[in-house]
């Protein structure tokens, strides 16, 4: 139990979440940060670590993606000035100069913490079974020029499989979807597409949607605008090279880390950013094996559910067949993002 709380607290520090509060408090964005109780209903984005990490370090212009200790400086507890009490959606970005981006338009850390470049980290607030979760107050500030999705409507589930880290057991994954005639949405980092282009071709052939998740799976907050554009455009080219088709206009920020400026930038490039309404602590081994992803998903199942599942978690893949079967039994169909209807 102690270890669990420790991990939860650490994950919270990493993702700057606050926890333990009642669902959907209106002032969450200004509430003080605190480690969550084990039953906390705030579900943060994954930390930058092994399971969700990007390609080998030498190729990465962004933050380190090693063990969590490297990220201890990114949480609110070490923030200075106004951010010292920030919570929830605030991610202060790497402070280690060694990980800073070198470039003509790279922003100094101070500037990156304010205004429309203030780093944000996606999260949601779990509600009782069957109910749509609460979402960050930041979403209320999204404009029409910041196209984004985090939940749909109706008896549809959008399974999004994130492959920013290990590819894991591809065969079981593909089979579990095929056997159940379920379609999924894949966000596969470009370096993984390069590693296994056949995998991507098989997914497209099976009718799944594969969308843009950047080339290097780096926190976009520490990249310059030029770098972000290049990450996205290089992915488009690679996708076309590999599949012979144009990519569908959906984008996921690695680690759910973004800012308002980037949300607009990505939107201006024709993309809709896709967040989620279910995520799991699947960047670490699951205490109860495949039971954990099964319960995490089934206990938060709701209309228009956008589920984030990391492909690199063996427990997820082991549980997938049962998850898909039981979601269908509950009356939902597995849909692609291109037919989503967000709530009005
Ligand atoms: Zn990812």
From TrEMBL:
Biased composition (Low complexity): 39-55, 72-89
Region (Disordered): 20-116
Gene Ontology molecular function: hydrolase activity, acting on carbon-nitrogen (but not peptide) bonds
Entry superkingdom: Bacteria
Alphabetized UniProt keyword annotations: Signal
InterPro entries per UniProt: Glyco_hydro/deAcase_b/a-brl, NODB_dom, Polysacc_deacetylase_ArnD, Spore_PdaA
Residues covered by the NodB homology domain: 155-335
One Pfam entry name: Polysacc_deac_1
Signal peptide: 1-23
Record GO cellular component, one term: membrane
Gene Ontology BP annotations: carbohydrate metabolic process
This protein's name: Polysaccharide deacetylase family protein
Organism: Paenibacillus validus
Species lineage: Bacteria, Bacillati, Bacillota, Bacilli, Bacillales
